[in-house]
Write a sequence for this structure.
């Protein structure tokens, strides 16, 4: 049984010696990681560890200085930013990034329409295809925003906007979810909602989660990576990482209180 | 519904029937018919700019390049002493302008914001000096169009372009069609992506759209319609002139668009009529009309945050 399960685990996304330099600053320095399908891979590290840089490279927003990004065995570091999303690599942003003036449904419709075709159809009404609305609605239901369907995105609460952002990523039918601090600035109850959501989603997608909320990361992660100063420190299961003396020393300092 | 704003529906029901009936009362006075025609032509031009600036967020100060191009293209491709078909040449001119816009847009749209304003201005000025300095194109004086096109479709001719009233109706029809076209465009799937890009380009890229292509397409469409307006202008007055290409033409169109309410499309018509109306009435009152004109424009822009259309919407949509 167990071997059967482990055979199903597939490397979805992989980095090989990934580097990003800003002039002399090494924001990311030779990071090699593997992200598996249907697993949640947490990434933690102090400020400036290169977590967001890593996500920005993985979604094509930045071009790496050196190194490779492999998606299902194909090198993709040279393709255009929008092509990453087309390959099924969706991301949410640290700072809420939605269409504030449009309804929640419309926000998701933009995400769905990309793969439905007809984006250069100049005359066909955007409301003409019921299926499109339904898929967008489903994405909203999935994150628990079904009741906010027709509300303007700027008028829903901050926590709901974060949920909406995840719904938009889901609406693109991704394989990989790159989530940059989805719980940033949230209250405890709102965070709990997101944790539940991610617990459900990680059975379906390959999720890369950058998060400051340690409790959440420990609860959710199948794999956990610790980064320090743009470098990869260690990767393993949550308990492996916790017991790693180098982690305690380098990252946590007097971090016993955190564990 | 295609016209989803109540204010816009009021505008359409008020403006177009009125414009339709007006020539009946002005039968004796071709001056006013011609004047209104030229305002409508410019309103069409402003509409195409309004789409670019207000809907796509692409601020250009070189749109007059296509206005002038519409005129010069007609002179270039039409035989000098022979009446050509109006509709066929409309198609030719729009297509050639679209091709030019494709090339220029490809370069211009790599920039954005203030840089885009500068580079569009640079292209427009290049075109301006090219035409105003070359003897073959009549230099500063421009060129005359000796024969106006005929407008038959399958042997049926509804408009005689030498008749000011006929020409008035042709321009009114063009204005209405353009308004409907832009409404369809905005409501379309393409329009959804354009709206998304305008509101949040970074997010739209992250969702997998190549935003450059959508901007290029919008630029091409608006430019082709801008050229159509210039073509109509040339046919009305029977000449082309480098002043059509001048940056002041782009500038006043931009002012009219802002005055009317950017991105509302029908606001472009309002803005153009108010601007030209003020221009006309002040010009007759005082020699220093520009001074008063400027003050009034500043006052109106400050008073109406989202232009005249925005102000009217605020008044009328509240009760919904």
């Amino acid at each position: 049984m167990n071997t059967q399960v482990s055979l199903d685990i597939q490397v979805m996304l992989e980095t090989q010696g990934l580097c990003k330099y800003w002039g002399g600053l090494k924001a990311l320095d030779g990071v090699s990681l593997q992200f598996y399908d249907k697993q949640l891979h947490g990434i933690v590290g102090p400020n400036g560890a290169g977590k967001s840089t890593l996500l920005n490279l993985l979604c094509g927003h930045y071009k790496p200085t050196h190194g490779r990004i492999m998606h299902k065995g194909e090198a993709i570091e040279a393709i255009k930013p929008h092509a990453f999303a087309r390959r099924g690599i969706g991301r949410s942003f640290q700072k809420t990034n939605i269409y504030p003036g449009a309804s929640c449904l419309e926000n998701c419709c933009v995400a769905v329409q990309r793969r439905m075709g007809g984006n250069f159809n100049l005359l066909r009404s955007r409301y003409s295809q019921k299926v499109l609305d339904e898929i967008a609605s489903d994405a909203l239901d999935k994150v628990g925003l079904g009741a906010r369907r027709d509300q303007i995105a700027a008028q829903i609460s901050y926590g709901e906007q974060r949920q909406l952002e995840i719904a938009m990523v889901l609406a693109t039918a991704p394989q990989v979810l790159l989530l940059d601090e989805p719980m940033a600035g949230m209250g405890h109850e709102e965070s709990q909602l997101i944790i539940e959501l991610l617990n459900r989603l990680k059975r379906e997608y390959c999720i890369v989660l950058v998060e400051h909320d340690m409790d959440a990361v420990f609860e959710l992660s199948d794999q956990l990576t610790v980064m320090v100063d743009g470098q990869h420190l260690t990767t393993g299961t949550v308990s492996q990482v916790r017991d790693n003396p180098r982690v305690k020393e380098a990252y946590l300092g007097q971090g016993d209180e955190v564990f | 519904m295609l016209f989803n704003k109540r204010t816009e529906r009021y505008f359409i029901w008020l403006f177009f029937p009125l414009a339709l009936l007006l020539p009946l009362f002005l039968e004796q006075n071709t001056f006013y018919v011609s004047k209104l025609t030229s305002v409508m032509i410019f309103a069409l031009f402003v509409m195409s700019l309004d789409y670019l600036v207000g809907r796509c967020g692409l601020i250009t100060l070189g749109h007059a390049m296509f206005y002038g191009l519409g005129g010069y293209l007609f002179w270039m491709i039409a035989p000098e002493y022979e009446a050509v078909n109006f509709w066929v040449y409309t198609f030719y001119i729009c297509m050639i302008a679209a091709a030019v816009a494709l090339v220029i847009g490809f370069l211009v749209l790599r920039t954005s914001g203030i840089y885009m304003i500068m580079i569009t201005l640079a292209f427009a000025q290049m075109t301006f000096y090219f035409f105003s300095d070359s003897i073959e194109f009549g230099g500063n004086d421009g060129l005359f169009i000796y024969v106006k096109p005929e407008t038959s479709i399958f042997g049926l001719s509804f408009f005689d372009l030498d008749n000011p009233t006929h020409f008035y109706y042709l321009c009114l029809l063009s204005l209405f069609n353009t308004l409907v076209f832009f409404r369809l465009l905005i409501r379309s799937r393409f329009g959804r992506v354009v709206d998304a890009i305008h509101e949040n380009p970074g997010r739209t890229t992250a969702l997998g759209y190549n935003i450059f292509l959508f901007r290029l397409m919008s630029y091409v469409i608006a430019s082709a319609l801008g050229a159509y307006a210039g073509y109509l202008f040339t046919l009305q007055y029977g000449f082309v002139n480098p002043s059509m290409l001048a940056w002041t033409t782009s500038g006043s169109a931009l002012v009219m668009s802002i005055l009317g309410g950017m991105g509302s499309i029908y606001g472009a018509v309002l803005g153009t009529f108010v601007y030209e109306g003020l221009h006309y009435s002040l010009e007759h009152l005082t020699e220093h009309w520009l001074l008063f004109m400027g003050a009034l424009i500043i006052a109106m822009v400050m008073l109406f945050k989202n232009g005249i259309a925005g102000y009217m919407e605020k008044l009328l949509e509240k009760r919904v």
